[in-house]
Structure to design on (491 residues):
């Protein structure tokens, strides 16, 4: 079904407002700097005429027919700490805001993963009890297990035949060619893609250093953006393995930037927004609801808390990450990839090693508070409270876009819904994507302009409309501002 007709942008220039930053974390594979970023910006900004005023529409240099796209520029920027990366910046949009797009590039850090490390990771995944394998991963698990068994049986048969001198020269040559092909396939496809996963997903002695380097790079960029007065909003978008990296970064950042030293009178608006989130909190160790009675209302409360926290004051630093968007995310299999089973993963949630959405409350009752008392004001003696470190999704909305398919060949077997692992506050949106191979492995098509895709549901949108709504450059929930705030000089 085609998307609804969008009204043309207004002609007049709106008042200037603070800008926003969108950070894209690329997925696994031998990614080239800026490739993911440029493709994403093309889908979310350049080819969405409703976002730019008429004077920002320019001819597409890649289209001989001269079709119009929204203007943007690629600008040097020191915040990425790399000469290979640039910031893509837009003109003021129809709402009077500029958007800067950044890429968190990490593929260079995971280079050099060995066959042994990859084999150890695969062995760890396969060496599980049948009950510990989640239903949505069983088809892929069986296919992988069958492939490994075939390779091992063939290798054993070859070794036995050679030892018994029962193999002919011709068969030996064919086996050598086949073995060379298998090794080439592992080096060409296995290591560049799944080697990244093996190097990051699980904390082990062989992976700790690379995990730390990736996180350090991401934290440096996000903290720099968080403290930049040019922006009052950050959107964190991630694809594939990048979503696991982005999730970790969110948790680390929240521990540093979460609201603390809150006092009843001074911070009344912040506490009111936190108490609105309290009504939806989960309870550690008990069954979670399959869905929230009012998901839209919960997301409005998340946005309101983000609005209260985005401005720094004398007592609080800013929290500006309003949205976390995951595309084709393996986080859906976290109980299998990160831990051994769902029980172990839920224990991590209860211990606040992992963050749920909605957050898990203090205490053992549903609808409990996220706050705890951390001391008193030294001058007045008034009690001060803080939001606990596992509540990042109190102030950050999570939208997860996935293409389920048949679980191993069609669609995107890496992706799936998040409710079972992370809670019913995640907005899960299923799409059906088709590329040049039809429905075969659509993992890289979420922002493709050449693919066709549609939302699965009663009122389907195109896959690009789903993505644009998730990133929400227009800030649908932002109250209208009578006066434009002062914008600091652009850096």
């Amino acid at each position: 079904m085609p998307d609804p007709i969008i009204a043309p942008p207004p002609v007049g220039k709106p008042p200037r407002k603070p800008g926003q930053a969108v950070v894209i974390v690329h997925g696994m594979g031998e990614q080239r700097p800026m490739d993911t970023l440029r493709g994403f910006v093309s889908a979310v900004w350049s080819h969405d005429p409703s976002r730019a005023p008429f004077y920002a529409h320019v001819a597409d240099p890649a289209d001989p027919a001269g079709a119009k796209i929204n203007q943007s520029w690629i600008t040097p920027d020191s915040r990425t700490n790399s000469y290979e990366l640039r910031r893509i910046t837009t003109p003021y949009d129809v709402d009077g805001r500029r958007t800067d797009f950044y890429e968190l590039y990490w593929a260079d850090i995971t280079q050099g993963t060995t066959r042994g490390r990859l084999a150890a990771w695969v062995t760890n995944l396969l060496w599980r009890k049948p009950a510990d394998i989640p239903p949505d991963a069983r088809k892929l698990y069986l296919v992988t297990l069958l492939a490994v068994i075939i390779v091992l049986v063939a290798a054993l048969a070859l070794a036995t035949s050679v030892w018994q001198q029962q193999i002919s020269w011709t068969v030996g040559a064919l086996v050598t060619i086949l073995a060379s092909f298998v090794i080439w396939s592992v080096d060409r496809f296995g290591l560049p893609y799944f080697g990244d996963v093996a190097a990051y997903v699980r904390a082990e002695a062989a992976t700790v250093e690379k995990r730390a380097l990736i996180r350090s790079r991401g934290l440096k960029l996000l903290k720099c953006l968080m403290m930049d007065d040019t922006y009052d909003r950050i959107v964190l978008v991630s694809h594939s393995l990048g979503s696991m990296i982005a999730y970790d970064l969110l948790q680390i950042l929240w521990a540093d930037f979460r609201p603390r030293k809150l006092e009843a009178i001074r911070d009344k608006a912040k506490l009111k927004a936190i108490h609105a989130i309290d009504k939806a909190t989960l309870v550690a160790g008990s069954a979670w609801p399959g869905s929230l009675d009012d998901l839209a209302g919960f997301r409005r409360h998340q946005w309101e808390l983000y609005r209260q926290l985005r401005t720094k004051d004398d007592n609080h630093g800013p929290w500006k990450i309003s949205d976390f968007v995951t595309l084709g995310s393996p986080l859906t299999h976290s109980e299998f990839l990160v831990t051994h089973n769902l029980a172990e993963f839920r224990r991590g949630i209860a211990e606040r090693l992992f963050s749920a959405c909605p957050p898990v409350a203090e205490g053992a009752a549903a609808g409990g508070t996220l706050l705890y008392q951390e001391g008193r004001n030294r001058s007045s003696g008034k009690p001060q409270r803080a939001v606990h470190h596992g509540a990042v999704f109190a102030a950050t909305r999570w939208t997860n876009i996935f293409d389920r398919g048949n679980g191993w060949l069609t669609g995107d077997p890496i992706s799936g819904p998040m409710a079972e692992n992370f809670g019913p506050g995640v907005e899960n949106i299923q799409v059906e994507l088709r590329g040049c191979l039809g429905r075969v492995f659509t993992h890289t098509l979420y922002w493709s302009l050449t693919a066709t895709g549609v939302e699965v549901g009663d009122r389907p949108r195109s896959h690009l409309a789903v993505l644009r709504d998730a990133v929400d450059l227009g800030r649908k929930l932002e109250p209208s501002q009578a006066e434009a705030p002062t914008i600091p000089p652009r850096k």
Summary: The chain has two domains: 19-110+207-263+290-348+393-471, 115-200.
